[in-house]
Amino acid sequence: MVEPTVVNVVGTITYQQEIALDALADTFTRRGEISDVTYEPAENHWLQTRFAPDDTYVAFYRSGRCSIAGGNSVEHFHEVADRVNTLMRDILQFEYEPTVEISNIVTTADIGTSIPLEALTLELGMEHTEYEPEQFPALMYREEDYVMLVFASGKLLCTGLTDVADVTDAIEQMESRLRVVV
Q1: b/e string for 73-111 if b means 16 or more Cβ within 10 A?
Q2: 60 and which of 7, 47, 148, 171 could share a cystine (Cβ 3.0–4.6 Å)?
Q3: Which residues 6+ apart lie within 8 Å of 128 measured at CB?
Q4: pTM, rounded to two decimals
Q5: pLDDT for 142-178, tens place per residue?
Q6: What 3-state class would DSSP assign to 14?
Q7: Do 9 and 101 touch, CB atoms closer than 8 A?
């Protein structure tokens, strides 16, 4: 069994109030927890930040939502969400618990052998696969909840799931289907 490696965890925090992005940007420029602040309302409708010490990307929206990208594990994502919530609780002075939700976990895996992608396309079925080597070097396998890229080198990339156990199951299923063609 191949172990997946988490390369990105993406999610959101929802606050129960609108956020004045211009005021938040001004406040953030004076806070040590923020290593970078970009707010250009003429170009983007969100406030872009990097949270120290690891420069995790956090974007804030006027609607009261914020998105976090770049977590290298589920635990790291939740650590960043806790840091963001601590800071926002200090600034906005709210008493409620914001909703924190993971929306995507991106993982990679390597089965350690080359894969004949043309044969795999037939094995997986044309209704679930796209493989056009002139356009993109990987076979794209689509399920209802996720997409998996399969490269001829034996590398896999899975995206779209929100639970590491589900990712592991998807990769195990793909690995068993790969055994038929390698």
Answers
A1: ebebbbebbebbbebbeeeeeeeeebebebeebbbbbeb
A2: 47
A3: 141, 142, 143
A4: 0.91
A5: 999 999 999 999 999 999 999 999 999 999 999 999 9
A6: strand
A7: no
